[in-house]
Amino acid sequence: MLLVAIIAGGLAGGGARNSPAPARADAPGAVTAASVAASPRAISASPHDGVRGRSRCPLSTVTGGYVNPLANAVVKPERIDQGIDYAGSGTLVAIGSARVTHVATSNTGWPGAFVEYQLLGGADAGCYVFYAEGVIPANGLRVGEAISAGQPIATIIPSYPTGIEIGWGAGRGTKTYANVAGRWSAADDEADIATAAGRNFSALIAALGGPPGKVEG
Question: Is 147 a member of any domain?
Fold first, then answer.
């Protein structure tokens, strides 16, 4: 019943995205740690933009203590927007030790579920990570739960109409870092704009050995 409810919400929330062919980390348009380091625009977000009163989020791509959240999934990278869009199947795991801050499968404002956790260690301690849209939260996952690096967090729903999106969260309901920082709008969505936060998260994924997203706008 949970899967049916999530799929129904996704169909109501928007149409299907086209899934491009699998992309390599060195493919044109892919965002890697090196390309972010070389691009001032890609790292222009301040650690405090839009998250006043919250724990500092450095948006670092230093990988010590972290694991690839897509290691147990088979995915095709799609566009970078607020985060990174993927299509595929498998399990999403926690990047590092963290505490769960949000778990919802309905009324999320997204076409599907929304799971978020706050990293407790590593270079990005204090930052929030979200997994959204075509995902099913791990059985029994609850807000306030302490989780470890590599722990299963959500299952990807294969062939979900909008795929999944992962990226930096804000610790404010189901909003993203880019949204709270005032760097995302409906116009940006239409224009396939890759936000600074999305580019940064893509670079972190690449540094961890996963497939980075694609800049399309």
Answer: yes
